[in-house]
Amino acid sequence: MRDTSSPGPLAGVRVVELAGIGPGPFAAMLLADLGADVVRVDRPKPSPLGIDPAYDVANRNKRSVLVDLKAPEGPGLVLDLAERAHLLIEGYRPGVAERLGVGPQACLARNPALVYGRMTGWGQHGPRADRAGHDIGYAAAAGVLGMIGDPDRPPAIPANLLGDYAGGSLYLVVGLLAALHHARATGTGQVVDAAIVDGAAHLTGVLWGLLAAGQWQDRRGANLLDGGTPCYAVYPAKDGGHLAVGALEPQFYAEFARLLGLGPDAPGQWDTARWPELRALIAARFATRTRAEWEEVFAGSDACVEPVLTMREAAASAHLAARGTYVEADGYTQPAPAPRFSATPGTLRRPPSRPGADTAEVARDWGLPALSRPSGPPAAAPAAPAAPATSAAAPAAASPPAAAPVRNTRPVRNTPPAPPSPDAAAR
Any transmembrane segments, and where (predicted)? Predict the structure, then answer.
């Protein structure tokens, strides 16, 4: 569904993103999806971990400029952008931005109201602050990775969703928006130190309370919510598919037991001494039918049983299709903006930015003509530019102006479609 009427709740917020990988770009995408005017400062030489820009979903709804920070004029151009921005995101190791001349002190000197977001794995200080790392290591060090998986096997790896994006990107965005609220009230910006180890650890807050209360064991596969209980676990079906069971409450468990056919002689839900027997019984029942057959059995019930779907299966599922959770845009499936806003929904206005394709446009819209002049060594010509977007030009100012939003030239609005017929680095 296309709609040009909603620029999003963050319309007018200007963001400078110093190109990186992982959680920083994803955080900037979240802001861009909600209407912020995000300008990504790409370097002339792309990251070796990068993909074809046309498929880099983390760069959708953004515009890109090319700046060589190692060229004499490079840092000055970034400072000019920072002077006109509300937020800045960088994901270098501690001290790198300062050495390049675009650290928080230099940027805040140009724009005292700027919120400077720093996205790292280990944080800006501490014994490991200057070490390389990736999501898996940060989640491990935060005590989170060790919670996941079968107790008799190595911990399971939840892709890079838990560290990079949950413990990193989401906490950075919360910090940026909270600091922006403060800056608008006081005129004073600040630095947001978003470390993946901090965010991942913070996610475990409730579990630490349970641990202190004696209701959680400090080992995986032995607790209420980590597969330790037979009624909260994953079971294989006859055809190799899997079913996720979350029947915790008594009324839901009773429905689950009835539909699964456990029988009156089955061990009780909370008879912990007989849990091995109950788990084996549940597994044996699931092994008698295929995943699809069990889906039919539990359809429409409150037994809290769901099929474990692949990415493509999830995108095609009836519920997510009805909500428009995934959309077709730019020739492939991708998640729609989230969360949903009743008055100012997020939209897909632009395809993923291509490095440098929007330099002239940003130079015009942000009132920075020097940006469009050649900088540093010549870079390879970028691929075909993204669909153009227009915003009102903004003069240079010591404090960030209220930038006009990028006009929606190709939006896909995240609102439910019509109901279907009956028949979403090293740092």
Answer: none
Q: Give residue 295's domain range.
A: 242-307
- Active-site residue (options: 164, 193, 358, 365): 164
- The answer on 19 and 140 residing in a single domain is yes
- Helices 23-33 and 170-186: crossing angle in degrees, nearest 10, is 60
Q: Is 260 helix (H, G, I), strand (E, B) or coil?
A: helix
| pLDDT tens track for 253-294 | 999 999 999 999 999 999 999 999 999 999 999 999 999 999
- Nearest 5°: the CA angle 72, 403, 181 is 100
Asked if residue 320 is part of any domain, the answer here is no
134: annotated active-site residue:
yes
Q: Is residue 181 part of a domain?
A: yes
Instruction: Let me know if 242 is a catalytic residue.
Output: no
CATH number at residue 288: 3.30.1540.10
Same domain, yes or no, for 196 and 252? no
Give the pLDDT mean for 189-214: 98
| pTM summary value | 0.86
Place of tokens 């939840």: 158
Same domain, 352 and 287: no
